[in-house]
Amino acid sequence: MIDKQKLWDELNKIPDPELGISIVELGLIYKLDVDKGGVVSVNMTLTTMGCPLFELIAGPIQENLKKIDGVKDVLVELTFEPPWSPEKMTEEAKVKLGFF
After folding, report:
1. The sheet that has 73-78: what strands, in order across it?
2. Containing domain of residue 52, as a range?
């Protein structure tokens, strides 16, 4: 059985390439699922629809999560529904970016 908290912990280590803040803190990860066969599915977004950084984020997601025992494959799906907004960020990320 794959520990979902370990998956979240690994995702939290991955910084946004431009902002240097965790993709989890930024609210870019919408959903994280694990099937019985060890396939992890990550549903994520980007801060803007035209952002060209998907591959720079998806690669580390796949690499980091595949290191966890039991993970056989990692599928990363990009969505813009619902659109990202600053309200999705953690309070810590907002502070780091000067929203307060």
Report:
1. 29-34, 39-44, 73-78
2. 4-96
